Protein backbone atom coordinates (compact mmCIF):
# COMPACT_ATOMS: atom_id res chain seq x y z
CA UNK A 1 0.00 0.00 0.00
CA UNK A 2 1.46 3.35 -1.05
CA UNK A 3 4.97 1.93 -1.29
CA UNK A 4 6.21 4.51 -3.68
CA UNK A 5 4.91 7.46 -1.71
CA UNK A 6 6.26 6.02 1.53
CA UNK A 7 9.64 5.60 -0.06
CA UNK A 8 9.80 9.10 -1.40
CA UNK A 9 8.58 10.73 1.81
CA UNK A 10 11.07 8.67 3.73
CA UNK A 11 13.87 9.88 1.48
CA UNK A 12 12.68 13.48 1.74
CA UNK A 13 12.54 13.39 5.53
CA UNK A 14 15.64 11.28 5.94
CA UNK A 15 17.89 14.28 5.38
CA UNK A 16 16.44 15.90 8.46
CA UNK A 17 16.10 12.86 10.67
CA UNK A 18 19.73 12.28 11.51
CA UNK A 19 20.68 15.89 12.02
CA UNK A 20 21.01 17.48 15.42
CA UNK A 21 20.56 20.85 13.82
CA UNK A 22 19.08 21.80 10.50
CA UNK A 23 19.00 24.94 8.48
CA UNK A 24 16.24 26.78 6.75
CA UNK A 25 17.71 25.59 3.47
CA UNK A 26 17.38 21.95 4.63
CA UNK A 27 13.76 22.50 5.53
CA UNK A 28 12.91 24.21 2.25
CA UNK A 29 14.62 21.45 0.30
CA UNK A 30 12.79 18.77 2.27
CA UNK A 31 9.43 20.41 1.75
CA UNK A 32 10.08 20.61 -1.96
CA UNK A 33 10.77 16.89 -1.98
CA UNK A 34 7.66 16.21 0.08
CA UNK A 35 5.57 18.14 -2.40
CA UNK A 36 7.13 16.26 -5.30
CA UNK A 37 6.37 12.96 -3.57
CA UNK A 38 2.73 13.95 -3.15
CA UNK A 39 2.41 15.04 -6.76
CA UNK A 40 3.95 11.80 -7.94
CA UNK A 41 1.36 9.96 -5.86
CA UNK A 42 -1.28 11.78 -7.88
CA UNK A 43 -2.31 14.14 -5.12
CA UNK A 44 -4.11 17.19 -6.46
CA UNK A 45 -1.67 20.06 -7.13
CA UNK A 46 -3.40 22.61 -4.94
CA UNK A 47 -3.67 20.18 -2.06
CA UNK A 48 0.01 19.31 -2.26
CA UNK A 49 0.92 22.98 -2.28
CA UNK A 50 -1.34 23.85 0.65
CA UNK A 51 0.03 20.88 2.50
CA UNK A 52 3.63 22.00 2.34
CA UNK A 53 2.69 25.58 3.12
CA UNK A 54 0.94 24.43 6.28
CA UNK A 55 3.82 22.20 7.29
CA UNK A 56 6.20 25.09 6.80
CA UNK A 57 4.06 27.44 8.90
CA UNK A 58 3.85 24.92 11.69
CA UNK A 59 7.55 24.23 11.55
CA UNK A 60 8.31 27.93 11.85
CA UNK A 61 5.70 28.35 14.57
CA UNK A 62 7.25 25.59 16.62
CA UNK A 63 10.75 26.84 16.09
CA UNK A 64 11.82 23.58 14.55
CA UNK A 65 15.30 24.85 13.91
CA UNK A 66 16.09 25.40 17.56
CA UNK A 67 14.59 22.23 19.04
CA UNK A 68 16.72 19.32 20.16
CA UNK A 69 15.61 16.90 17.51
CA UNK A 70 14.36 18.98 14.63
CA UNK A 71 14.14 16.02 12.26
CA UNK A 72 11.76 14.12 14.49
CA UNK A 73 9.62 17.15 15.07
CA UNK A 74 9.34 17.66 11.32
CA UNK A 75 8.24 14.07 10.84
CA UNK A 76 5.62 14.60 13.52
CA UNK A 77 4.37 17.78 11.87
CA UNK A 78 4.13 16.02 8.50
CA UNK A 79 2.32 13.13 10.13
CA UNK A 80 -0.18 15.39 11.89
CA UNK A 81 -0.85 17.34 8.71
CA UNK A 82 -1.29 14.16 6.71
CA UNK A 83 -3.75 12.90 9.32
CA UNK A 84 -5.66 16.15 9.23
CA UNK A 85 -5.76 16.09 5.44
CA UNK A 86 -7.22 12.58 5.39
CA UNK A 87 -9.90 13.43 7.88
CA UNK A 88 -8.76 13.83 11.46
CA UNK A 89 -10.77 11.49 13.67
CA UNK A 90 -12.29 8.30 12.31
CA UNK A 91 -16.01 8.50 11.69
CA UNK A 92 -18.35 5.54 11.88
CA UNK A 93 -21.52 5.01 9.89
CA UNK A 94 -24.92 6.14 11.05
CA UNK A 95 -26.94 3.12 12.10
CA UNK A 96 -29.85 4.92 13.68
CA UNK A 97 -33.32 4.06 12.40
CA UNK A 98 -34.95 0.68 12.31
CA UNK A 99 -34.06 -0.52 9.82
CA UNK A 100 -31.15 1.76 9.09
CA UNK A 101 -30.89 2.14 5.36
CA UNK A 102 -27.51 2.37 3.68
CA UNK A 103 -27.39 3.38 0.03
CA UNK A 104 -24.36 2.50 -2.07
CA UNK A 105 -23.34 4.69 -4.97
CA UNK A 106 -20.42 4.75 -7.36
CA UNK A 107 -19.24 3.82 -10.83
CA UNK A 108 -19.45 0.34 -12.28
CA UNK A 109 -16.43 -1.70 -11.23
CA UNK A 110 -15.62 0.51 -8.27
CA UNK A 111 -16.36 -2.39 -5.94
CA UNK A 112 -19.91 -1.53 -4.79
CA UNK A 113 -21.27 -5.08 -4.83
CA UNK A 114 -18.18 -6.50 -3.17
CA UNK A 115 -18.23 -3.78 -0.53
CA UNK A 116 -21.97 -4.22 0.10
CA UNK A 117 -21.18 -7.84 0.96
CA UNK A 118 -18.19 -6.90 3.09
CA UNK A 119 -20.22 -4.34 5.04
CA UNK A 120 -23.09 -6.78 5.55
CA UNK A 121 -20.62 -9.36 6.82
CA UNK A 122 -18.90 -6.80 9.05
CA UNK A 123 -22.21 -5.73 10.60
CA UNK A 124 -23.46 -9.29 10.92
CA UNK A 125 -20.34 -10.16 12.90
CA UNK A 126 -21.23 -7.40 15.34
CA UNK A 127 -24.01 -9.75 16.49
CA UNK A 128 -26.59 -7.04 17.18
CA UNK A 129 -27.13 -6.39 13.49
CA UNK A 130 -29.18 -8.38 11.05
CA UNK A 131 -28.50 -6.99 7.59
CA UNK A 132 -30.46 -7.45 4.38
CA UNK A 133 -28.87 -6.86 0.98
CA UNK A 134 -31.05 -5.38 -1.76
CA UNK A 135 -30.13 -5.75 -5.44
CA UNK A 136 -31.13 -2.64 -7.38
CA UNK A 137 -29.05 -3.01 -10.53
CA UNK A 138 -31.87 -3.58 -12.99
CA UNK A 139 -29.68 -3.43 -16.10
CA UNK A 140 -27.31 -6.31 -15.54
CA UNK A 141 -28.85 -9.62 -14.48
CA UNK A 142 -25.30 -10.73 -13.73
CA UNK A 143 -25.05 -8.03 -11.08
CA UNK A 144 -28.06 -9.49 -9.26
CA UNK A 145 -26.52 -12.96 -9.48
CA UNK A 146 -23.25 -11.58 -8.14
CA UNK A 147 -24.98 -10.13 -5.08
CA UNK A 148 -26.73 -13.45 -4.47
CA UNK A 149 -23.39 -15.26 -4.65
CA UNK A 150 -21.92 -12.81 -2.15
CA UNK A 151 -24.98 -13.16 0.11
CA UNK A 152 -24.72 -16.96 0.08
CA UNK A 153 -21.06 -16.75 0.89
CA UNK A 154 -21.59 -14.68 4.04
CA UNK A 155 -24.97 -16.10 5.02
CA UNK A 156 -26.91 -12.86 4.49
CA UNK A 157 -30.29 -12.75 2.75
CA UNK A 158 -30.51 -10.92 -0.57
CA UNK A 159 -33.73 -9.26 -1.72
CA UNK A 160 -34.17 -9.02 -5.49
CA UNK A 161 -36.99 -8.76 -8.00
CA UNK A 162 -35.77 -9.86 -11.41
CA UNK A 163 -38.84 -8.92 -13.43
CA UNK A 164 -38.94 -5.40 -12.05
CA UNK A 165 -37.00 -2.63 -13.78
CA UNK A 166 -37.80 0.18 -11.39
CA UNK A 167 -34.98 0.54 -8.84
CA UNK A 168 -37.02 2.93 -6.69
CA UNK A 169 -39.80 0.37 -6.36
CA UNK A 170 -37.32 -2.44 -5.63
CA UNK A 171 -35.54 -0.47 -2.93
CA UNK A 172 -38.84 0.41 -1.27
CA UNK A 173 -39.99 -3.20 -1.44
CA UNK A 174 -36.64 -4.25 0.02
CA UNK A 175 -37.08 -1.93 2.99
CA UNK A 176 -40.65 -3.16 3.51
CA UNK A 177 -39.36 -6.74 3.40
CA UNK A 178 -36.76 -5.85 6.03
CA UNK A 179 -39.37 -4.29 8.32
CA UNK A 180 -41.67 -7.29 8.00
CA UNK A 181 -38.90 -9.78 8.66
CA UNK A 182 -36.87 -8.27 11.46
CA UNK A 183 -33.82 -7.01 9.55
CA UNK A 184 -32.36 -3.93 11.23
CA UNK A 185 -29.98 -2.84 8.48
CA UNK A 186 -30.73 -2.60 4.76
CA UNK A 187 -27.83 -2.23 2.34
CA UNK A 188 -28.92 -1.17 -1.14
CA UNK A 189 -26.57 -1.99 -4.01
CA UNK A 190 -27.27 0.16 -7.06
CA UNK A 191 -26.32 0.17 -10.74
CA UNK A 192 -23.21 2.00 -11.81
CA UNK A 193 -22.00 3.18 -15.19
CA UNK A 194 -18.49 3.24 -16.56
CA UNK A 195 -18.44 7.02 -16.35
CA UNK A 196 -20.56 9.71 -14.76
CA UNK A 197 -23.68 10.25 -16.90
CA UNK A 198 -26.99 11.96 -16.44
CA UNK A 199 -29.21 8.88 -16.53
CA UNK A 200 -27.27 7.21 -13.75
CA UNK A 201 -27.18 10.37 -11.68
CA UNK A 202 -30.92 10.83 -12.07
CA UNK A 203 -31.58 7.27 -11.12
CA UNK A 204 -29.47 7.26 -7.97
CA UNK A 205 -30.84 10.63 -6.94
CA UNK A 206 -34.42 9.35 -7.40
CA UNK A 207 -33.67 6.36 -5.18
CA UNK A 208 -32.00 8.63 -2.67
CA UNK A 209 -34.98 10.97 -2.53
CA UNK A 210 -37.52 8.16 -2.30
CA UNK A 211 -35.93 6.16 0.49
CA UNK A 212 -34.06 8.88 2.43
CA UNK A 213 -31.28 6.63 3.67
CA UNK A 214 -29.58 7.15 7.04
CA UNK A 215 -26.29 6.76 5.27
CA UNK A 216 -25.29 7.27 1.65
CA UNK A 217 -21.88 5.92 0.80
CA UNK A 218 -19.82 6.64 -2.27
CA UNK A 219 -17.60 3.76 -3.35
CA UNK A 220 -14.48 4.56 -5.32
CA UNK A 221 -11.59 2.58 -6.74
CA UNK A 222 -8.42 4.05 -5.28
CA UNK A 223 -6.44 3.00 -8.35
CA UNK A 224 -8.17 5.70 -10.38
CA UNK A 225 -6.19 8.56 -8.79
CA UNK A 226 -7.28 12.05 -9.78
CA UNK A 227 -10.30 10.66 -11.62
CA UNK A 228 -11.52 9.33 -8.31
CA UNK A 229 -11.59 12.84 -6.95
CA UNK A 230 -13.55 14.16 -9.94
CA UNK A 231 -16.08 11.33 -9.76
CA UNK A 232 -16.48 11.95 -6.04
CA UNK A 233 -17.23 15.60 -6.74
CA UNK A 234 -19.90 14.70 -9.32
CA UNK A 235 -21.65 12.23 -7.01
CA UNK A 236 -21.42 14.56 -4.05
CA UNK A 237 -23.05 17.39 -5.99
CA UNK A 238 -26.07 15.20 -6.60
CA UNK A 239 -26.27 13.10 -3.46
CA UNK A 240 -24.49 15.08 -0.77
CA UNK A 241 -23.28 11.69 0.43
CA UNK A 242 -22.15 10.95 3.98
CA UNK A 243 -18.93 9.10 3.45
CA UNK A 244 -16.45 7.58 1.06
CA UNK A 245 -15.37 3.97 0.70
CA UNK A 246 -11.94 3.55 -0.87
CA UNK A 247 -11.52 0.14 -2.46
CA UNK A 248 -8.56 -1.78 -3.85
CA UNK A 249 -6.05 -0.25 -1.48
CA UNK A 250 -4.31 -3.64 -1.51
CA UNK A 251 -3.17 -3.00 -5.04
CA UNK A 252 -0.31 -0.84 -6.09
CA UNK A 253 -2.17 2.42 -5.63
CA UNK A 254 -0.26 5.63 -5.65
CA UNK A 255 -2.32 6.94 -2.78
CA UNK A 256 -3.46 10.22 -4.30
CA UNK A 257 -7.15 9.49 -3.92
CA UNK A 258 -6.86 8.62 -0.24
CA UNK A 259 -5.00 11.82 0.43
CA UNK A 260 -7.02 14.23 -1.71
CA UNK A 261 -10.61 13.07 -1.53
CA UNK A 262 -11.48 14.28 1.96
CA UNK A 263 -10.43 17.85 1.39
CA UNK A 264 -12.05 18.07 -2.04
CA UNK A 265 -15.54 16.87 -1.09
CA UNK A 266 -15.21 17.49 2.62
CA UNK A 267 -16.63 14.08 3.45
CA UNK A 268 -14.81 11.50 5.54
CA UNK A 269 -13.42 8.24 4.20
CA UNK A 270 -15.20 5.67 6.37
CA UNK A 271 -13.97 2.28 5.26
CA UNK A 272 -11.31 0.85 3.00
CA UNK A 273 -11.32 -2.33 0.95
CA UNK A 274 -8.06 -4.23 0.96
CA UNK A 275 -8.80 -7.33 -1.10
CA UNK A 276 -11.39 -9.38 -2.88
CA UNK A 277 -12.30 -11.52 0.11
CA UNK A 278 -15.27 -10.68 2.30
CA UNK A 279 -13.00 -10.13 5.30
CA UNK A 280 -10.89 -7.52 3.50
CA UNK A 281 -12.58 -4.47 5.01
CA UNK A 282 -11.12 -2.00 7.48
CA UNK A 283 -12.43 1.04 9.25
CA UNK A 284 -10.45 4.01 7.96
CA UNK A 285 -8.38 5.69 10.64
CA UNK A 286 -6.59 8.74 9.22
CA UNK A 287 -3.88 8.74 11.89
CA UNK A 288 -3.09 5.08 11.38
CA UNK A 289 -3.00 5.56 7.64
CA UNK A 290 -0.60 8.47 8.06
CA UNK A 291 1.62 6.20 10.16
CA UNK A 292 1.59 3.61 7.42
CA UNK A 293 2.35 6.11 4.70
CA UNK A 294 5.30 7.35 6.74
CA UNK A 295 6.54 3.79 7.19
CA UNK A 296 5.74 3.68 10.89
CA UNK A 297 3.56 0.61 10.63
CA UNK A 298 0.17 0.19 12.22
CA UNK A 299 0.40 -2.16 15.15
CA UNK A 300 -2.98 -1.13 16.53
CA UNK A 301 -4.80 -2.34 13.41
CA UNK A 302 -2.73 -5.51 13.34
CA UNK A 303 -3.73 -6.36 16.90
CA UNK A 304 -7.37 -5.52 16.15
CA UNK A 305 -7.38 -7.83 13.16
CA UNK A 306 -5.95 -10.60 15.30
CA UNK A 307 -8.63 -9.99 17.91
CA UNK A 308 -11.39 -10.12 15.33
CA UNK A 309 -10.33 -13.61 14.34
CA UNK A 310 -9.85 -14.68 17.93
CA UNK A 311 -12.48 -17.04 19.24
CA UNK A 312 -12.42 -17.47 23.02
CA UNK A 313 -14.13 -20.82 22.98
CA UNK A 314 -11.61 -22.16 20.46
CA UNK A 315 -8.75 -20.70 22.45
CA UNK A 316 -9.91 -22.49 25.61
CA UNK A 317 -10.14 -25.78 23.77
CA UNK A 318 -6.69 -25.25 22.38
CA UNK A 319 -5.29 -24.50 25.80
CA UNK A 320 -6.66 -27.76 27.14
CA UNK A 321 -5.16 -29.67 24.26
CA UNK A 322 -1.77 -28.10 24.79
CA UNK A 323 -1.91 -28.90 28.49
CA UNK A 324 -2.70 -32.52 27.72
CA UNK A 325 -0.06 -32.70 25.03
CA UNK A 326 -2.71 -33.24 22.41
CA UNK A 327 -1.93 -30.32 20.14
CA UNK A 328 -1.86 -31.85 16.67
CA UNK A 329 -1.57 -30.88 13.05
CA UNK A 330 -5.30 -30.30 12.71
CA UNK A 331 -5.01 -27.58 15.34
CA UNK A 332 -1.98 -26.21 13.55
CA UNK A 333 -3.97 -26.06 10.33
CA UNK A 334 -6.76 -24.18 12.09
CA UNK A 335 -4.25 -21.63 13.35
CA UNK A 336 -2.92 -21.11 9.84
CA UNK A 337 -6.43 -20.62 8.53
CA UNK A 338 -7.05 -17.96 11.17
CA UNK A 339 -3.92 -16.09 10.21
CA UNK A 340 -4.93 -16.24 6.57
CA UNK A 341 -8.32 -14.76 7.40
CA UNK A 342 -6.56 -11.73 8.85
CA UNK A 343 -5.79 -10.66 5.32
CA UNK A 344 -3.23 -10.40 2.62
CA UNK A 345 0.24 -11.31 3.94
CA UNK A 346 2.12 -8.39 2.47
CA UNK A 347 -0.49 -6.06 3.87
CA UNK A 348 -0.09 -7.59 7.32
CA UNK A 349 3.68 -7.29 7.13
CA UNK A 350 3.27 -3.63 6.21
CA UNK A 351 1.60 -3.07 9.56
CA UNK A 352 4.77 -3.98 11.42
CA UNK A 353 6.89 -0.85 11.89
CA UNK A 354 9.85 -0.92 9.56
CA UNK A 355 8.90 -4.24 8.00
CA UNK A 356 7.05 -2.68 5.07
CA UNK A 357 10.20 -0.92 3.94
CA UNK A 358 12.41 -3.92 4.53
CA UNK A 359 10.14 -6.23 2.61
CA UNK A 360 9.12 -3.95 -0.17
CA UNK A 361 11.00 -5.88 -2.83
CA UNK A 362 10.32 -9.27 -1.35
CA UNK A 363 7.58 -11.17 -3.01
CA UNK A 364 5.41 -12.52 -0.24
CA UNK A 365 2.58 -14.21 -1.94
CA UNK A 366 -0.62 -15.19 -0.28
CA UNK A 367 0.20 -18.82 -0.84
CA UNK A 368 3.00 -18.73 1.68
CA UNK A 369 1.24 -21.49 3.59
CA UNK A 370 0.36 -23.59 0.60
CA UNK A 371 3.24 -26.07 1.03
CA UNK A 372 2.55 -26.49 4.73
CA UNK A 373 -1.15 -27.01 4.12
CA UNK A 374 -0.47 -29.54 1.37
CA UNK A 375 1.82 -31.53 3.69
CA UNK A 376 -0.75 -31.57 6.49
CA UNK A 377 -3.54 -32.51 4.08
CA UNK A 378 -1.45 -35.48 2.93
CA UNK A 379 -1.32 -36.88 6.46
CA UNK A 380 -3.96 -39.28 7.71
CA UNK A 381 -6.17 -38.03 10.55
CA UNK A 382 -4.37 -40.45 12.86
CA UNK A 383 -0.99 -39.02 11.87
CA UNK A 384 -2.23 -35.49 12.35
CA UNK A 385 -3.17 -36.09 15.94
CA UNK A 386 -0.15 -38.29 16.63
CA UNK A 387 2.79 -36.70 14.82
CA UNK A 388 5.27 -38.85 16.73
CA UNK A 389 4.37 -41.88 14.59
CA UNK A 390 5.74 -40.22 11.47
CA UNK A 391 8.58 -42.55 10.48
CA UNK A 392 10.57 -42.31 7.29
CA UNK A 393 8.24 -44.37 5.09
CA UNK A 394 5.30 -42.23 6.17
CA UNK A 395 7.33 -39.09 5.49
CA UNK A 396 8.17 -40.31 1.98
CA UNK A 397 4.50 -40.97 1.31
CA UNK A 398 3.49 -37.53 2.64
CA UNK A 399 6.19 -35.80 0.60
CA UNK A 400 4.94 -37.51 -2.55
CA UNK A 401 1.32 -36.86 -1.79
CA UNK A 402 1.85 -33.18 -1.18
CA UNK A 403 4.25 -32.55 -4.04
CA UNK A 404 6.98 -31.55 -1.57
CA UNK A 405 10.16 -33.29 -0.43
CA UNK A 406 10.96 -35.34 2.65
CA UNK A 407 13.22 -32.48 3.68
CA UNK A 408 10.28 -30.09 3.64
CA UNK A 409 8.23 -32.56 5.65
CA UNK A 410 11.07 -32.85 8.15
CA UNK A 411 11.39 -29.13 8.36
CA UNK A 412 7.72 -28.72 9.12
CA UNK A 413 7.92 -31.43 11.77
CA UNK A 414 10.87 -29.70 13.37
CA UNK A 415 9.05 -26.37 13.46
CA UNK A 416 5.96 -28.06 14.78
CA UNK A 417 7.92 -29.74 17.59
CA UNK A 418 9.61 -26.51 18.54
CA UNK A 419 6.29 -24.75 18.61
CA UNK A 420 4.67 -27.48 20.71
CA UNK A 421 7.53 -27.32 23.18
CA UNK A 422 7.27 -23.58 23.44
CA UNK A 423 3.52 -23.67 23.94
CA UNK A 424 3.87 -26.31 26.61
CA UNK A 425 6.39 -24.16 28.41
CA UNK A 426 4.17 -21.08 28.30
CA UNK A 427 1.34 -23.18 29.65
CA UNK A 428 3.14 -24.72 32.58
CA UNK A 429 3.84 -21.33 34.10
CA UNK A 430 7.13 -21.64 32.35
CA UNK A 431 7.07 -18.10 31.08
CA UNK A 432 10.02 -17.34 33.30
CA UNK A 433 11.91 -20.38 32.09
CA UNK A 434 11.37 -19.27 28.54
CA UNK A 435 12.53 -15.75 29.23
CA UNK A 436 15.70 -17.19 30.70
CA UNK A 437 16.15 -19.38 27.68
CA UNK A 438 15.73 -16.45 25.35
CA UNK A 439 18.19 -14.37 27.30
CA UNK A 440 20.56 -17.29 26.76
P1 LIG B 1 -19.32 -2.91 -8.80
O1 LIG B 1 -19.51 -2.94 -10.29
O2 LIG B 1 -19.11 -1.51 -8.31
O3 LIG B 1 -20.39 -3.62 -8.04
O4 LIG B 1 -17.92 -3.62 -8.53
P2 LIG B 1 -17.63 -5.10 -8.02
O5 LIG B 1 -17.99 -5.24 -6.58
O6 LIG B 1 -18.22 -6.07 -8.97
O7 LIG B 1 -16.04 -5.11 -8.10
C1 LIG B 1 -15.32 -5.03 -9.33
C2 LIG B 1 -14.05 -5.87 -9.21
O8 LIG B 1 -13.18 -5.34 -8.24
C3 LIG B 1 -14.32 -7.30 -8.80
O9 LIG B 1 -13.48 -8.14 -9.54
C4 LIG B 1 -13.93 -7.33 -7.32
O10 LIG B 1 -13.49 -8.60 -6.91
C5 LIG B 1 -12.82 -6.32 -7.28
N1 LIG B 1 -12.67 -5.68 -5.96
C6 LIG B 1 -13.62 -5.06 -5.24
N2 LIG B 1 -13.09 -4.56 -4.10
C7 LIG B 1 -11.76 -4.88 -4.10
C8 LIG B 1 -10.65 -4.63 -3.20
O11 LIG B 1 -10.76 -3.99 -2.14
N3 LIG B 1 -9.45 -5.12 -3.60
C9 LIG B 1 -9.27 -5.81 -4.76
N4 LIG B 1 -8.06 -6.25 -5.04
N5 LIG B 1 -10.29 -6.05 -5.61
C10 LIG B 1 -11.51 -5.60 -5.30
TrEMBL record:
Question: What keywords sit in the KW lines?
Answer: Cytoplasm, GTP-binding, Hydrolase, Nucleotide-binding, Ribonucleoprotein, RNA-binding, Signal recognition particle
Task: Specify the SRP54-type proteins GTP-binding domain's residue ranges.
Answer: 268-281
UniProt-annotated binding residues for GTP = 106-113, 189-193, 247-250
Catalytic activity from the UniProt record: GTP + H2O = GDP + phosphate + H(+)
Enzyme class at the top of the EC tree: hydrolase
Known SMART domains for this protein?
AAA (SM00382), SRP54 (SM00962), SRP54_N (SM00963)
Q: Does the keyword Ribosomal protein apply?
A: no
Q: What is its EC number?
A: 3.6.5.4
Q: By its UniProt entry, which InterPro entries does this protein fall under? A: AAA+_ATPase, P-loop_NTPase, Signal_recog_part_SRP54_M_sf, Signal_recog_particl_SRP54_hlx, Signal_recog_particle_SRP54_M, SRP, SRP54, SRP54_GTPase_dom
What does the UniProt entry say about where the protein is found? Cytoplasm
Q: Which CDD domains match?
A: SRP_G
What is this protein's function per UniProt?
A: Involved in targeting and insertion of nascent membrane proteins into the cytoplasmic membrane. Binds to the hydrophobic signal sequence of the ribosome-nascent chain (RNC) as it emerges from the ribosomes. The SRP-RNC complex is then targeted to the cytoplasmic membrane where it interacts with the SRP receptor FtsY.
**Self-association state and partner proteins as the record states:** Part of the signal recognition particle protein translocation system, which is composed of SRP and FtsY.
Comment field on protein domains: Composed of three domains: the N-terminal N domain, which is responsible for interactions with the ribosome, the central G domain, which binds GTP, and the C-terminal M domain, which binds the RNA and the signal sequence of the RNC.
Write down the NCBIfam families for this protein, in alphabetical order.
ffh
Q: Which HAMAP family match?
A: SRP54
**Family under the similarity heading:** Belongs to the GTP-binding SRP family. SRP54 subfamily.
For this entry, the protein name equals Signal recognition particle protein
Q: Which organism is it from?
A: Litoribaculum gwangyangense
